[in-house]
Amino acid sequence: MAGARASLLLVMACLSVACARRHASALNYADALEKSILFFEGQRSGKLPADQRLPWRGDSGLSDGAAYHVDLVGGYYDAGDNVKFGLPMAFTTTMLAWSVIEFGEMMQGQVQHAMAAVRWGADYLLKASTAAPNTLFVQVADPNMDHRCWERPEDMDTPRSAYKVTSQNPGSDVASETAAALAAASIVFRDADPAYSKKLLQTSMMVFDFADRYRGSYSDSLSSVVCPFYCSYSGYHDELLWAASWLQMASNTTSNYMSYIQSNGHTLGAEEDDYSFSWDDKRVGTKVLLSKGFLQNRVEQLQLYKNHADNYICSLLPGSPGFQAQYTPGGLLYRGSESNLQYVTSTSFLLLTYAKYLNSQGGAAAMCGGNAVTASSLISLAKKQVDYILGQNPAQMSYMVGFGEKYPQHVHHRGSSLPSVHANPRPIPCNDGFRYLYSGSPNPNVLVGAVVGGPDSRDGYADDRNNYQQSEPATYINAPFVGALAYFAGTASKQ
């Protein structure tokens, strides 16, 4: 026990000085924050507003849903293609909203842009949720056809098929995440736009009831078009509990949703430990979110979630009895070869959010065996991950496009890699675009703020458009990073 405690204390001491003395230069977190939000304007689908700040993008997908007599214009393209996938889009919206809820006061001049990013996603999810009774539209475009082309979104001529879940073909996972997104967004707009906030919350309740009443995975209902792209590998139980937790937060009631959590938590994953948080698996995010109710309001029924949130924290700390994580030689959290930075940004966000909850109670700590891990230790670990992404790493490369002196030039992203519609207004057909995919030239349009998939387990990175596992950005990588950057931008401004 003494050896384990000494090892853990050594790790904490290392983290507290950031273990990166060779990179002493200060990072401009405010600049990174601004860019991280700007990225979402590059992912917009639909009619672009007059204040669009990435000028190389144009209108796209203006007839989405028309063939089905519904309006599905708007929303976000999830990554480097031109498909609107509902599950990652809803998770992106939830995480953008959570970023504003926890760290909006630290965003300074960027909070309005962050709220605009939330609204762009929420507006689309409202349309998808209210087009027909007991129906949720969850995807626009056939991904198999879309991936056969390398086209700008403004030129799309592949099928814009619309896919839905219904009471006969359920999708509790995507419906619950949609409910979570709408509930979280309702909190963001509670003061700024009460009528909009009320509509979001009422729709969230309706969609959650649909998700809970007609249970099933959308991967079963729509397997040919959502798999292998965004299969719900974790099932739908985690999303049901996640959505109920957000509705409890948003509705300010202690009856319906708290009762649901208490009655159903044990069958929906409350007692399961998992060590990643992503568009697919919401278990640890739910533990952290619900721990707030225990730490700040002493809701005893929620102590279980605080205990399991502690288990998650312990899994990240070398020397801890529950250590589970893997780190690269350069110190980056490593979970998988494809789009690893999604786990790094989501983990950093949870560390900072949990630290905030702990700090709200003065001396509260996460317990790892017999050791108390303070909020400052969580902040130090999060900072190391954020700093690595922004350039303090063995390659001395920023993995955020447009940030720093050295960043990815060959991003796996159609709109960024092809000449813009303003520079080349003639359509570039499906197959003609592939010469730009295979070109060795840098992308002509800078997708400012995009965080790419990131380096491998040995800190190696191939700046290669064809290596999508490393070079493709995604909205769900950036969304939690907005909150993490807001925290460090806010604290830096006070120093």
Automatic annotation (TrEMBL):
<keyword id="KW-0119">Carbohydrate metabolism</keyword>
<protein>
    <recommendedName>
        <fullName>Endoglucanase</fullName>
        <ecNumber>3.2.1.4</ecNumber>
    </recommendedName>
</protein>
<feature type="active site">
    <location>
        <position position="463"/>
    </location>
</feature>
<feature type="signal peptide">
    <location>
        <begin position="1"/>
        <end position="20"/>
    </location>
</feature>
<keyword id="KW-0326">Glycosidase</keyword>
<comment type="similarity">
    <text>Belongs to the glycosyl hydrolase 9 (cellulase E) family.</text>
</comment>
<keyword id="KW-0378">Hydrolase</keyword>
<dbReference type="Pfam" id="PF00759">
    <property type="entry name" value="Glyco_hydro_9"/>
</dbReference>
<dbReference type="InterPro" id="IPR008928">
    <property type="entry name" value="6-hairpin_glycosidase_sf"/>
</dbReference>
<feature type="active site">
    <location>
        <position position="412"/>
    </location>
</feature>
<keyword id="KW-0732">Signal</keyword>
<feature type="domain" description="Glycoside hydrolase family 9">
    <location>
        <begin position="29"/>
        <end position="485"/>
    </location>
</feature>
<dbReference type="GO" id="GO:0030245">
    <property type="term" value="P:cellulose catabolic process"/>
</dbReference>
<feature type="active site">
    <location>
        <position position="472"/>
    </location>
</feature>
<dbReference type="InterPro" id="IPR018221">
    <property type="entry name" value="Glyco_hydro_9_His_AS"/>
</dbReference>
<dbReference type="InterPro" id="IPR033126">
    <property type="entry name" value="Glyco_hydro_9_Asp/Glu_AS"/>
</dbReference>
<keyword id="KW-0136">Cellulose degradation</keyword>
<dbReference type="InterPro" id="IPR012341">
    <property type="entry name" value="6hp_glycosidase-like_sf"/>
</dbReference>
<dbReference type="InterPro" id="IPR001701">
    <property type="entry name" value="Glyco_hydro_9"/>
</dbReference>
<dbReference type="GO" id="GO:0008810">
    <property type="term" value="F:cellulase activity"/>
</dbReference>
<keyword id="KW-0624">Polysaccharide degradation</keyword>
